[in-house]
Amino acid sequence: MNGNWVRHETIFVGRVQGVGFRATALNIARRYPVVGFVENRPDGSVRLLVEGDPETCRQLAYHISDQMEDFIAERTIETSEATGEFASFDIRE
């Protein structure tokens, strides 16, 4: 983990489950030097939790938002200190 990494949590709300959102997020995330996961939440939203360089994390969230814009009604983003707990980027069930 790089010393200037952050934790970037994005919650996507809308018709984001059952539309290939997590698979799309995984495919996009593999193009960026980030670690973390994407998961469906019980309330019907999708959570994207990534750690990486601040600008890279923002670019990833916007890339996913751009790709899946037809399904997203709302997006919230929170940034905090990276924990270094992830070794890769995965889909969580």
Task: Report the CATH C-level class.
Answer: Alpha Beta
Overall number of structural domains = 1
What is the count of helical runs? 2
Shape: globular
- Give the radius of gyration: 12 Å
> What structural category characterises the helix and strand content?
alpha+beta
Provide a descriptive summary of the structure in words.
With 93 residues, this protein is α+β, with helices and mostly antiparallel strands. It has one domain: Alpha-Beta Plaits (2-Layer Sandwich), CATH 3.30.70. The protein has two helices and five strands. Strands 4-1-3-2-5 form a five-stranded mixed beta sheet, with helices on one face. It is globular, with a radius of gyration of 12 Å. Keywords: Hydrolase. It is an enzyme of class 3 (hydrolase). It catalyses: an acyl phosphate + H2O = a carboxylate + phosphate + H(+).
Brief account:
The chain is an alpha+beta fold and 93 residues long. The chain is 25% helix and 39% strand. It comes from Blastopirellula sediminis.
